[in-house]
Structures are given as C-alpha cells and as structure tokens.
Amino acid sequence: MTHESWIAQLDAYLDGELAAGAMRELDRHLRECSECAAESLRRLQWKRMVRAAGQRHAGDSGLREQVRKSVSRRRSRLSAWQWTALATGAAVLLVFGGFDVAERNERVLREKQIVSELVDLHVATLASGTPVDVVSTDRHTVKPWFAGKIPFTFNLPELQGSPFELVGGRVSYLEQAPGAELIFKVRKHLISVFIFQDRALRVDFSASEPNFGQSFQPESWKQGELHYFAIGDASLEDLRALRALLENAR
C-alpha cells in the first residue's frame, strides 16, 4: 500500500469507521511510520477542537409536539377559564419536562465526551514513538512507579497463565485530572486501561449503557473511588476477561 493510501485512511481511522482488519493494519503502520503518526496526531487534535466547538445542547421537540397535539384535541371542548388553566399546566409540564430532558441529554453528552477523549488518548498512545513511560512486564515495578505522580493507588493482577501481558504505563490527564494509563497486550492487540478518580469524571456511567458508536467500545466499571476504562480493538470477551483480572487484583 502506498504512503498516500495510508494517509487517506486516517480520518476514517480516527472516526472509528474502518473495519476491524483495516484498523489493525493501520495501527501497525502508525507504530512504524513517524510521518503518518505525526499526521494522525495533528488530525486528532483538530477533530477534538472542532468537536468541542460544535457541542450544543438541543431540546427535545418530541415532548413539545406531544403536548401541542393533546391540547389541540381538547381545546374546542373547554371554556375560556378551563383553557387558561390547561395552558398554564401544560406550560409548567413543558418547562419541567424540558429540564429533565436537558439534564439527560447533558449526561449522555458528557459520557460521550469522556469516552471520545479516552479513545483519542488511546490512539495517541498507539501513534507515539514512546507509548509508555515505564516499560516493564512486572507489576511490582509498574505500580510503584506511579507513586507521587497520581493522587491514588491501585492494584495490578498477576497475569501468569493468562493471555495478557503488561507492557508498561504512563500518566494521562482527563480534563487536567491525572490518572494512570496501563498498556496491556493480548495476542497482537494493545489495550489501554485508564484509571481515574471517580469524582474527577462528574458523571454516573453506571446510570446507563449508552451506545457510543465507536470502533473502540469501552469496557468501564467503578471500583471503590476509582473508575476504570478498558479501550482497544481487542474483542469484547478479551476486554471483559481483562476487567475480571483487574477487579480481582490484590
């Protein structure tokens, strides 16, 4: 494949629109080609700026239309004072219903924003010439390295006898909050496991199971005061197996 062909796939890659096989091939190419990796990071940063500028809260027109139709059916049968009372009640319902819809939309938008930022961090890690700051397969080396660099501690599992290999780790930031990014390898796939303090996220992921529409679907869970995200192009079964190991780590 020519260099121009790789470049032509970058936007689809960053938007998660490539097939799984093409994603893996481009992953490998980005780790080997510094020029494509640099272009990938440039486009990723541009997309993040455009996405941040384009985020807007839109009200739910469905509730407004439902109230309008209901009122129209009853209007001809109501006296003037009854119509006034109904209109006032409908306005109150619409206002409070609008608050509820806006709050729900804001939460979903916040969840998508967080996952999108984590996917960007994962892609940036794959494209980086130095994906980890501490390189070690030994959990007793990686875990102490984070001491003093992040405001919490965590446990790493014993991976002997499992298909997973610890590659290393680095400090990552989500909206200026420091956290751990651990890189695991399963067969030929790399998985980023992000760990942040739950209070830094300011959203309850456990309240819903949104469909983020990304090729890198996250496996996320809360453990104590920490929130974990496992992101990669590995299978869902592999992500959940790694989650089980981390949840049982001592």
Low-confidence stretches: 207-213
Please state the structural category: alpha+beta
**In what order do the strands lie side by side in the largest sheet?**
1-2-3-4-6-5
| End-to-end C-alpha gap | 46 Å
How many DSSP E strands? 6
Helix content: 40-55%
Mean pLDDT: 77
The total count of helices amounts to: 9
C-alpha Rg (nearest Å): 23 Å
What profile does the largest beta sheet have? 6 strands, antiparallel
Index terms:
single chain, alpha+beta, six-stranded antiparallel beta sheet, 250 residues, globular, 9 helices
Structural overview:
It is a single chain. The protein is built from nine helices and six strands, in the order ααααααβαβββαββα. It has a domain at 1-54. Strand 3 and strand 4 form a beta hairpin. It has a six-stranded antiparallel β-sheet, sandwiched between helices. It has helices spanning 3-8, 10-14, 20-32, 34-54, 61-75, 80-127, 139-145, 198-201, 236-247, and strands at residues 134-135, 164-174, 177-186, 189-197, 219-223, 226-232. It is globular and about 75 Å long. By secondary structure, the protein is of the alpha+beta class. The longest helix has 48 residues, at 80-127. The model is unreliable at 207-213 (pLDDT under 50). Helix 3 crosses helix 4.
Entry summary:
The protein is α+β, with helices and mostly antiparallel strands. It has 9 helices and 6 strands.
What layout of secondary structure does this protein have?
Blueprint: H1 3-8, H2 10-14, H3 20-32, H4 34-54, H5 61-75, H6 80-127, E1 134-135, H7 139-145, E2 164-174, E3 177-186, E4 189-197, H8 198-201, E5 219-223, E6 226-232, H9 236-247
Antiparallel strand pairs: 1-2, 2-3, 3-4, 4-6, 5-6
